[in-house]
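Figure S4 source data
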Amino acid sequence: MRLRTILLRTILLMTLALAGAHFEGAAAVAQEPQTQATAEAPLTDTPSDQAAKEIEKAKVQLGALQDSVKQNADNDDALVGLAAKADELSRAVITISVNVRPRFDQIKNRLAEIGEPPKDGQPPEAKIVTDERNTLAAERAQINAVTGDAENLSIAVTKLLNEIIEMRRQLFADTLFKRTEISVSVLDDAASAFVRETGEFAQALSSWASFVWKFKRFPLFAAIFLSLASALVLLSGSYRLFGAYLRRDEAVENPSYIGRLSIAFWSTLIRTLALSVLLVTSFFFLNSFNVLRPDIAPVIGALFGTIGLVYFVGRFVNAIFAPNEPRWRLVKLSNLGARSIGYCLSAMAVVNGLDYLFSSIGEAMGSPLVLTVVRSLIAALIIGIILIAVSFSKPMLARDGNPDAPGRHWPRGMAIILRVVGAGLIVTALAGYVGLARFVATQLIITGAVVATMYVGLLSGKAISRQESFGDTFFARFLTRRFNLGPVAIDQFGLLVGLAIYAVALLVGIPLILLLWGFHVQDLQLIAFRLFTEVKLGGISISLLGICTGILLFAGVYLLTRWLQRWLDGNVMARSHVDLGVRNSVKTGIGYLGVGIAAIIGVSAAGIDLSSFALVASALSVGIGFGLQNIVSNFVSGLILLVERPFKVGDHVVSGTAEGIVKRISVRATEIETFRKQSIIVPNSELINGLVGNWTHRNKIGRSEIPVSVAYNADPQQVMDILLELTAKIPLVMRNPEPHVEFLRFGPYSLDFELRFFLADMGDGMAVRNNLRIEILKRFKAEGIEIPLPQTDLTIHRDPRPALADAARDQTDGQETARDKPVEDEERPVRQLRGRAAES
C-alpha cells in the first residue's frame, strides 16, 4: 500500500513537471515566434516549390526543343522525333498543373475557415492566426503563378507542335512539287551515273558476301533459321485456325458469296503477314547479329520491302480476280480480262518495287540525284502507259455470263478515268514533276490494293454477321460439334465474328494507308496514344485505355466473385452440411458485395472521379422520394429477407394467392414455383408487409389428413382399427406423434372419420396419402365395409280433380278448359317436385 502511494506521488510530480515545461515552451514560442519558426522550418519543399522547379526544367526543355526544330527544319525524320518530345513535354506541363490543384483547394478551404482579418475597431486576432493566413496567402499566390506559367508554357508547346506540323507539311509539298528539268543531257548524265553505280554496288556486294561467308557464316544461318521459325509458327497457327479460309476447295462447284469473300480476305491477309514476319525478323536478326554492313543494310531492307510489296499485290490479284478459277472470282470479268488485269497490276507493282529498290541502292552508294530522278521518270512513264493500254482492253464479262467468251469494253466512265490518270502521270513526269508522278503511281498500286483488301474484309464481316449466314461456314459447324451450340448461339457468335473481322480490316488497313501517305511510325504511335488516353468531347476528357482497363478489372473481379461463390458453396458450406437457405443467402450476399466492389474498382480505374457522383446522388434522392419508392422498398425488403430469413430457398410458402416452393430470393423480388410449375415473381415488399405462411420454416414436419366416410351399418371401432393398422405399415409416417383417428360426425347418410398422421417431410405427403387411400379401399372391400353414396328422398304429391266440374261448365268454355286443364294438372306436380327438391 505504501509502495503504491509513493508511485502515485512520483507520477503526479512528473506530470506537473512536464506540464510546466510545456507552458514554458509555449511562452517561449509566443515571445520568439520568428526564431522558433526558423528553427523548425521544414526541410522538404512544398508542392508549390516542387511545381515551380519542374516548370523551370520544362522551360529549359522547351528552349532546347525550339533550337533543335530550327536546326532540323529540313529533316522530316528528326521533326517527327521532336514532335513526340514536344507532345510528351505538353503532357508533363499539364500534369504539373493538375498536381498542385489539390493543394490549392486545401489552402482555399483553410483560408475560408480562418476568415478575413479583423477590420478597424474590431478586437485583434492571435498572431499565430495572422501568420498562418499570410503563409497560406503567399503559397496560394505562388501556386497561381505556377499555374499561370504552366498555362503559358502549354500554349508555347502547342505552338511549337503546330510549327513542326506546318514544317513537315511544307517539306512534303516541296518534295512532291519539286520540278526537275528533263533534257537529253540529263538522260546522258543519268546513264553514266547508272553504269558507274552498278559497278560500285557489284563490288560492294561481292566484298560483303565474301566477308559474311568467311566470318559471319554461323550468324547468317542462325538469323535465317530464327526468321523461318517465326514465319512457320505464324503460318502453321494460321492454318490451324483459318485453314479452311486459306485455300480453295476444288470440289466446290458453286461456292457461296460469303465463302469467296472469306477466302479472298484471309488468304491475302494471313499469307502476306506470314511473309512480312519472315522478312522483318530476317532483317532484325541479320542486323542484330552484325551480319549487315551500314552500306548494305538499307539495300537489304529495300529488297525485303520490294519482295513484300510484289507478293502482296500478287496475293491480292489472285484473291480478287482468280484468273484461273472463275467460280471463285469476286468481280464480273472474263478469264482473259482477269488475267490481263492481274498481269498489269503485278507489272506495276514490280516497277514500283524496283524503283524503290534502285533508289535505296543509289542512296547507299551516294549516286547523284539525277539518276534517282530518271529512274522515277521511267517508272512513272511505264505505269502511265500500262494504265492507258488497260483502258482499251475488253475485260468485262460477256452478257451470257460465259467467262471463256470474249469480254466487253470497260464502262465508259472507268475507261476515261484510266486514260486520264495514265496520261496525267506521263505529262506530269515529262513536265519535270517526277516526285509527284512517282507518289501518285505508288499510291495507285499499293493504296488501291490495301483499300480493296479492306473493302473485301468489310464485306466479309457484313456477310458473316448477317442473320442465319454464319451457320453455313466451316467454323460454325466446328463450334456446333465441339461445344454443342444451338442455332441462336451460333447466330450471335456470327455477329461477334463479323465485328472482329471489321476490327481486323480497319486496324491493319488504316495504319498501312497512313504510312503510305507520309506518316511515320512515331506519328501513328502518338495518334494511338492520344486516342486511347485522351479523347476530348467538349470540356470532358475520356480515356479509352482507362475505360478498357476498368472494364477488364470489373470483369476480373466479377469472375473472381463467381469463383468465390462456387468455392464457398461447394467446398465449405456443402461439407459443413449448411442449410440450403443459408447457403443461398451467403451466395447472394457475396455476389452483390463482389459486384459492388467490382463496380467501384472499374469506375476508379476508368479515371472517373467518384466524388462527381455526389450531384447524381442528390438528383436521384429526389427521384427516390417520388418515383422510385417501390424499387427502394423492394430492395430494402430483399436485404431484410436475406438477413432475417423468415423463409429460404426450398421452403413451402403461402402468400396471398401464391403457394409453392421458393426457388430464388433476390434483392428485388422472390421467385415462387407453384405445384403446377408456374413461376410467380412476388415483390419483396409484399412478403415483408403481408402475411406469409411457411410450412417448412423450422422443419419439414407436417400433418396430413385423410377423410373417410362409411355406411351407418359399419362398426366404428373396426373402422378406426383398420385405419390405424394400415397407417402403421407405412415407414414414412412418424410414430411420435402417433397417428390417430377422429370420429367427426354423424353425417346425413354416413359416419364421418378423419385419419391424421405426421410426416417428417411434407413433400412426401401426396404420395403417402395416395397409397394409403388405395389400401383403405382394398381393405374396406375385403371387410365388407360400405362407403355410401349421397342419398336424397323425394316425395311427389298429386291432388285429385273432381269429375263433375267439367260437365257443369259451359259447353263453349268447357272445350277451352278441357284443353288447358290437363296441362295445368301435369305442371302442378312438377312445380311441387321442384320446390321440395330445393328444400331437401
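Figure S5 source data
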Amino acid sequence: MIPGKETVVGKNEPQKEKYGSFALFDVEHFLRKLLKYWYWFVLMLSIGYVVSWFYGKYYAQNIYSSNLSLSISSGTSSYFTPNQSINFIWGQGGNQDGVYLKKMLLSRSHNEFLVNELNLFVDYQTKGAIKSTYLDKDDSPVFFEIDKKHLQQVGYPITLTPKGNNSYEVSLPDEGQSTNLYSYDIEGFQNVEPYKRPANKIIKINEWYTSPNLRFKLVANPVSPSIKLENIIINLSTVNNTVNGIVSTIGVDFDKEINTIMIISKSGYSLNGTVSFLNKSVAELQKKRFIDKNTIDKNTEEYLKGSLADIRKKLDSSAAYLNYLKVSEKLYDITNRDEKSLEKIKDLETKKADILSKMNSLSTIRNTVDSQNFDKMISPSAAGFDDGLFTASVSELKALYLKKRELSSIYTPNSEPIREINRLISEAKTNSSGSLRNVYTVYTTELNKIDQQIREASSDLTSFPEKQRKYLDAERGYNMIEATYNSLLARQNESQMRLATNQSDISVIDPAKNLGQGPIGPNVKGTKMAIIGAFFALPFTLILLGSLFDSKIRNIKELISATRIPLLGVIGNNNADNMLTVLDSPKSSVSEAFRGIRANVRFLSGEDETSKVILITSSVGGEGKTYISINLASVLGLSDKKTILLGMDLRKPKIFGDFNIDNKLGISNHLTGEATIDQIINKTKIPNLDVATSGPIPPNPSELLMSDKNVRFIEELKKMYDFIIIDSPPVGLVADSYELMKHSDANLYVVRHEYTEKYMLKMITEKYHNNEIKHLGLVYNDYVSKQGYGYGYGYGYGYGYGYGYFDEDKNYKEPLLIKIRNKVRAIFNR
C-alpha cells in the first residue's frame, strides 16, 4: 500500500482543518543538525577556552576590599549626640548618631578633602605586552606631584620610562592635547590658546616638567618597591570624578547585634590603597568630630549662660511680686486649696516650660542656619532633639557655603559651577529645614495637648475669690519660670561636663590592614565559564534560530502526516550533468526509485484503463518536476510501454536540451494550428519513448493549454500511446495545471527536499481533501540519506544501502554512528 493512501478513506470535517498544517518546530531535524555540525561545537568550545584563558591571564583586573570597624560611644553628648526625648515622642529609636556618621563618610565634602589630601586624582598604571595593570601608589618608584596653580590636562596618559641615574623620560601621546584644561585650584575647566604637542623630555627626580598643558615633578618613593617596572603610566582625573568614583566603592553597615558599631568597607584595584584610604578617612572624621564637639559645646554653654541670666531676672521679678501679694494682700494662707489639681497643673506647666525653652533653642538653631552663621551653631540637644539627616545636612551646608565663596571669586553668578553649587546648597537646606520643621510640629502638637490639659485642670479654680485667683496665677507664673530656669540650668551643667571631659566618641575597634586578602572580584572562574558557555552556545543558538525560522520541507514523515496525500516514492540527489539518469545509469538507486514510482502510479487510477495520462507538477520552479517527468517517461519507455513526454510548461521550455531536440516546432505550434501532431513528435534513442517539446513561448500560454484543441490533442495521443507524461507548469505560480488535471488519470506533485516551502503545500492539500483534485500522489525529490539505511517503507528511495546492490554502493562509506551501532549489536548478538 502507498504511504498515506489509506488515510484518504473516511475523511471528515475536523480532520480537514489540520491538513496542510506543519509543526512550528521540527525536533528531529534540529537534533540531526546538531549532530551534523558537531565540529562547530568542538571548534567554538576550543575558541572559548582560549579566550577565557587570555581573559584570566591578561585582561582580568583583580578588585580588593578592606574593612574597618569602629564604635560610637553612647555616653557622650554633643552637637551630634542623640537625645532620646524627641525619639521617644516620634516613636523612633535606633542609632541617629550612626546615621550622621554614615552621611559624613559618604559626603562630598569629606571625600573631596581626602582626594586632595592623598592626591587620589593621580592614577598609576603600568603597561605590559598585552594589558595595562593598575598600581598602588606605593608600588611606584616615584610619586607624581602636580602644581595645582598650573592648568593640567586630565584624561591624558603620561608615560614615565626609567632611564637610570634617577631620571625618567616623559612621553606624551602623539595626539590628543586639549585646549580645555583643568584647574585643581578652582576645580573647573579653562580654555587656553592652541599649542603644539609637547616633545618628549628626560627629567630627574624633583625636577619640574612644564608644558602648556602640564606641570609636575617626580618625588622619590622613600620605600623602594619590590616590583621593577619598565614603565609607569599616569592619568589625571578631575576632583569631582574622583570623588564620585570613590563614594561608589565605599560601603557602610551597622552591626546587627550592636548598632553603635559601624563596619566600613572600601573596594579598589589596590589593597594597600583601600587600607590607607579607610584609615585616613576615619582619622580625619575623628579629628573633625572632636573639633566640632568642642566648638558646638562652647557655643551651647555661652547660649545657655545668656539664657539663664535672662530667665534669672524674670525669676527674681516673679518672686518679688509673689512676696508682695503675700505681704500686702495677706494671701499666704488660702483655705480649701485643691492641692491635687494645683500639683497636676504645676507638673503640666513644668513640661510646658521645658517645651517652650526647647522651642526657643530650636528657633535659635533655625536662625543660625538661615543666616549661615555656622560658627555660632549650638547643639541640637539644647532643643531636645537629634537627627542624623539634619546634622549631616548642616555639616554639608557649611562646606558648600565655603566652596561657593571660593568659586564666586572666579565664576559669574550664572556660570555652570555656581548653578551646580547652588543646587547642592538648596538640596542640603531642604533636608535641614525639613528636619527642623518636623521637630517644631512635634513640639507644637505636644504643647497644644498640655494647654488643653491645663485648661481642664484650671476649671476647678474658678470658684475661688478674685484675690485668691490672682495669687494662684502669680504662683503658677513663678513655678513656670522656675521650671524653665531649672531646665536651662540642667542643660548648662551637661554642657559644662562635656567641655570638661570632651574626647572623640569614635574609637576604632579594628583598623584596616593588609592581611594578604584575596581579591573579591571579578569572578574570574565564573566569567571564564560564561565565556566558554557563550562560545559553545553560539552554534546551538544559530542552529536553533535557523530551525525556528526554517519553513522548508525536510522531514518525509511530517510531510505525509501534514498533507495525508499518498507518497509514491523518494528520489535521491542527481549528481550527473544532465537529467537522463535512468538512461545513463540504469543500475543506480535513483533509477530503481523511478521504477518504484512507475509501479505505484497504478494505485492512483487503477489497472484496468488502457491509457494513462500522468501529469507532473510542483509548487514553484526548481523543484525537479521536469527531471521527474523525463525519467518517469524513460522508465515507462524502457518497460515496452509506448510513451510520449509532453512539455506543456509553455512559459519555460526545458525538455528539448537533454534529448538534443530542436524546439522550433512544438506543442505551442500545434495548438495555434501551425503544425500537425506528426510534425511536433520527436523520436528518442529509446524506441518506445517519444517527446513533444513546448515549442516557442506563446503570448497566451494559459489560453492555449485550456483550449478545446489541447483536449482533443490529448485525446488523439491516448489512441497512439500507452502512457502520456505531461510536464506541466508549477501550480504555485499559475493555474494551468489545475485545468490539465481534469484530463489526467494520475497527478504527481513534486516536493523537493530542503527546497519546497511548507506553506506552498496548503493549497494543493486543501483541493485534494475537498475532492477538487483526484488521483494525486507525492514524489519526494533530491533526498540525501544521512543514515545509510532505508527510510522505512520497504521500497527504493534513490540512495544506496551499502550492500553493493547499486552502482553508488561501491563508494559507500558507513557513517561512524552506524558503525558504532552495528558493533554494539554484534556484541549483544553473540
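The longest strand covers residues 64-72. The two ends are 36 Å apart (CA to CA).
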